[in-house]
Specification:
By secondary structure, this protein is α+β, with helices and mostly antiparallel strands. The chain has 20 helices and 37 strands. Strand 13 (about 245-250) and strand 14 form a beta hairpin. Helix 2 (about 60-80) packs across helix 9 and helix 15 crosses helix 16. The N and C termini lie far apart (about 70 Å). The structure holds flavin-adenine dinucleotide (FAD). Flavin-adenine dinucleotide (FAD) binds near residues 12, 47 and 350.
């Protein structure tokens, strides 16, 4: 056996084999895979082999599209068959909400180049005649849907990898992974030790156990899953063409032709987690006992939807486990806190996603970063706070919701409340309607009187509309208060702190006492952060960014550390409140003896102030676009700060506001938001972030950013006022211009201050002029929209800076 390699992939399921193939495809041939048994012997061999592009995340959907298109390429390369059946598939909608979701998906697909279409019940009946379309409002047809032979496909990946120089060692069990001081790994197997520069955990059902060998917890859990194959049915085998797939979210089932009969699987509500205490090493090429009880209701529903099933005998039952992460997306990328250790696990749809996962990981390893924003499957999207006790109920919830409508404003209840701030009880008593961000409870808005303490999930304006309007007007009219817990915060200290920040950040690093805004770029020039940098002294800086990107940012920072500089994630240690609105200064002046008048405490100043008993760090910035201050104290002092501000604020009309109001307020000033307007999908020039770049200094990503600057950019981020009805832009709606889709939205919403529906989105640069008339497709309907450049509030900045 080979004992030294550049990469050792652990696990020979479809995912490990895809990673191995893609590494060779990108030019690394000194790579190997070790498999404890035969290839496919985890969850891969018993998969139903179905594939589809539908995914709530646009980039995940694009990677699923890549996976599906790859199969023909693999077949051509290896001469092996993947057993492809490109039969197409339709997802049914039997409620208006489901139909809204499918129409929103269809709209996204327009600019992604995916040829899906909305079908009427009659059209569904015509292509899938065994379907009872009673109660069905329509469906989304995807010609790319199909199924394949799981084993044949995995072996095709393996052959293609071998052709590229990779080696595969089967019957080779990994017992330990030990890191050497130089960051390389000893992979200890029952056939000897392999010295590897990099380790990839593609352990599938055993990924938790393989992770534990390196001291990491990977948040995934296996679930039991079952599908049935029927006896031959003449209505099926006498057809001239193969029956398409039918996904019935109402019945939580997927159905397709299998040979001369049908195959139907369920995502049942009474689902069961498997191997809660850990996956046994003794589990081999085996299935779980049949369990009809848990799918009884699902079968009854299926009989109504497909009456033919009532008289079909069951030929085979396949019941096996496979793994899910808490949100159902894979766990891919460099594992935070470990060097040269990569995750390729938690892949619940290996045949829809395996190719995209392999490509992404190989790009990350070989080229330093993936070609697109893959945060939706980045292993760093869960914080280091995550535990098995949190993962399990979330995975169960995800399995149960697999076929549910995913609403943009939906707050899923499992494993909550988990992480709370000292304000939880106080806000709860004030009527907080809670949301969850990176495991943290965050007030979305405050219900009053007999308003329900629950936001109706919807693609349209929800019942939070009135409360949000109230909070927006409280800020714009007097002063509002909101917690700053859900910002990612970092302390950067040391003699080389300024030099280090200058290299890491593309923008200007401020002088002591000042604040600046800056993008952070990857070497490719793409945006990987949108930071506020406050300089407390020449050797002490404080950074603020997105709360959900903490591990994503810390992983990058730790990988870039050099010189005498220390960086600490203080997101949960440092908390407090932002106060915003025309009376914010009066409120601040009342709680401190310091002079906070405008000429002393200017816009973009940072100061240490004594506020009551607290020594606070106060930054004069506000994402609301209003006069505002962020007041940071130690988390232990947050309640004392609250008491002081709340009592002092009453005379100024102080009111609490939540995230819904914050996201509406930012629209007035056309402020972009991380992972919406700014993400690794975009470059600084096209998003306008280049205005913060300090071109005369050296920084990571400069060459690429300069290239964009010199060559220009094809598209430009713009703001629009939309003639909307009861639904605003959410994200990825197509923008129509001259009768064709020429752009897409990044986000939007309703400006309660201006009484207008606002959208942000990209259009061709040469068309991006004030007053441009476009149409935006929201939930399948066209809405006129006009490009605007004048901000809706405080266009001259008098209020924010004054
Ligand atoms: C009933 C059922 C139906 C399904 N239907 C579909 C479907 O229609 N479409 C779809 O896309 N997906 C489907 N899936 C899911 C699919 O099976 C998984 O997404 C896929 O198998 C994941 O592959 P993997 O490579 O990540 O994991 P696995 O297949 O579990 O592979 C992991 C491999 O790692 C090896 N390994 C683990 N630990 C070690 C070690 N210490 N040393 C060496 N080797 C090790 C294991 O032996 C195993 O071969 C289904 C799953 C089930 C259970």
């Amino acid at each position: 056996m080979k004992t030294s390699t550049r990469v050792c992939v652990i696990g020979g399921g479809v995912v490990g084999c895809s990673v191995l193939y893609h590494l060779t495809k990108l030019g690394w041939s000194d790579v190997m895979l070790v498999e404890r048994s035969e290839l496919t012997s985890g969850s891969t061999w018993h998969a139903a082999g179905g594939f589809h592009t539908l995914n709530g995340d646009t980039n995940m959907a694009a990677l699923q599209g890549y996976t599906i298109r790859l199969y023909r390429e693999l077949e051509a390369l290896t001469g092996m068959s993947c057993g492809l059946h490109h039969v197409g598939g339709v997802t049914l909608a039997d409620t208006p909400e489901r139909f809204d979701m499918l129409k929103a998906e269809r709209a996204k697909h327009r600019f992604m180049g995916l040829e899906t279409e909305i079908l009427s019940p009659q059209e569904i009946k015509a292509i899938a005649p065994i379907t009872n379309v009673e109660g069905v409002l329509g469906g989304l047809y995807d010609p790319l849907d199909g199924h394949l032979d799981p084993s044949g496909t995995t072996h095709a990946y393996a052959k293609a990898a071998r052709m590229g120089g990779a080696t595969i060692e089967t019957h080779c069990m990994v017992h330990e992974t030990r890191q050497r001081p130089d960051g390389t790994w000893d992979v200890v197997t029952d056939k000897g030790t392999i010295h590897a520069e990099h380790v990839v955990n593609a352990g599938g059902l055993w990924a938790r156990e393989v992770g534990a060998m390196a001291g990491v917890y990977l948040p995934l859990h296996p679930m039991e899953h079952q599908y049935l194959v029927t006896d031959d049915l003449p209505e099926i085998y006498e057809r001239a063409v193969e029956h398409p797939h039918v996904m019935d979210p109402g019945g939580e089932s997927y159905l397709r032709q299998e040979g001369r009969g049908l195959c139907i699987g369920f995502y049942e509500q009474p689902c069961k987690p498997w191997a809660v205490g850990g996956t046994p090493w003794s589990f081999g090429h085996e299935l779980l006992p049949d369990d009809y009880d848990k799918i009884e209701d699902s079968i009854a529903f299926a009989y109504r939807r497909y009456p033919i099933l009532e008289r079909a005998g069951v030929k085979t039952v396949i019941h096996g486990p496979f793994t899910f992460a808490p949100d159902g997306n894979p766990l891919v990328g460099p594992v935070p806190g470990l060097r040269n250790y990569w995750s390729a696990c938690g892949v619940m749809a290996g045949f829809s996603q395996g190719g995209g996962v392999g490509l992404t990981l190989a790009q990350w390893m070989v080229e330093g970063e993936p070609e697109r924003d893959v945060f939706a499957m980045d292993v760093a999207r869960f914080g280091r706070w995550i535990t098995p006790g949190y993962t399990l109920p979330k995975v169960v919830e995800n399995y149960q919701n697999r076929f549910s409508v995913t609403y943009p404003n939906e707050e899923l209840p499992a494993a909550r409340p988990f992480r709370t701030t000292p304000m939880y009880e106080i806000f709860d008593q004030m009527g907080a309607v809670w949301g969850s961000q990176y495991g943290l409870e965050v007030p979305n808005y405050f219900a009053q009187g007999d308003e329900p303490r629950y936001e109706t999930p919807s693609f349209r304006r929800s019942n939070a509309f009135e409360a949000t309007a109230r909070e927006v007007h409280a800020v714009r009219g007097a002063v509002g208060i909101n917690e700053v817990q859900n910002f990612g915060k970092y302390s950067v200290t040391g003699a080389d702190a300024r030099a280090w920040l200058n290299r890491i950040m593309a923008g200007r690093i401020p002088k002591p006492g000042r604040i600046s805004l800056t993008p952070m770029l990857a070497p490719s020039g793409r945006l990987i952060g949108d930071f506020t940098v406050a300089c407390l002294s020449e050797t002490e800086f404080r950074l603020t960014a997105s709360y959900s990107a903490q591990d994503f940012h810390m992983r990058w920072f730790e990988g870039q550390l050099a010189g005498e500089v220390q960086i600490a994630n203080i997101s949960d240690r440092s908390t407090g409140f932002q106060i915003a609105g025309p009376r914010a200064r009066d409120l601040l002046a009342k709680v401190t003896r310091a002079d906070v008048s405008d000429d002393v405490f200017r816009f973009l100043d940072v100061k240490r102030l004594s506020i009551g008993m607290m020594e606070a760090t106060v930054q004069r910035v506000s994402y609301t676009g209003d006069l505002g201050y962020e007041i940071y104290v130690d988390a232990m002092e947050q309640r004392a700060l609250w008491q002081l501000l709340w009592e002092a604020g009453q005379e100024f009309g102080l009111k609490p506001f939540g995230m819904r109001a914050m996201m509406s307020l930012r629209l007035d000033k056309f402020f972009g938001s991380w992972m919406r307007e700014f993400s690794p999908d975009y470059m600084p020039g096209e998003t306008g972030m280049d205005r913060f770049i300090q071109w005369e200094k050296a920084f990571i990503g400069k060459e690429a950013a300069e290239k964009e600057r010199a060559e220009g950019h094809a598209r430009k981020l713009c703001s629009f006022i939309v003639e909307a009805d009861d639904a605003d832009v959410i994200a990825y709606e197509p923008i129509w211009l001259d009768g064709a889709v020429q752009g897409f939205c990044t986000s939007g919403g309703y400006s309660h201050y201006a009484g207008k529906s606002v959208a942000f989105g990209f259009v061709p640069t040469d068309r991006a002029v004030d007053g441009l008339e476009v149409e935006i497709e929201i939930l399948g309907n066209m809405h006129k929209a006009r490009l605007v450049t004048d901000m809706l509030f405080d266009a001259d900045g008098a209020r924010m800076r004054g």
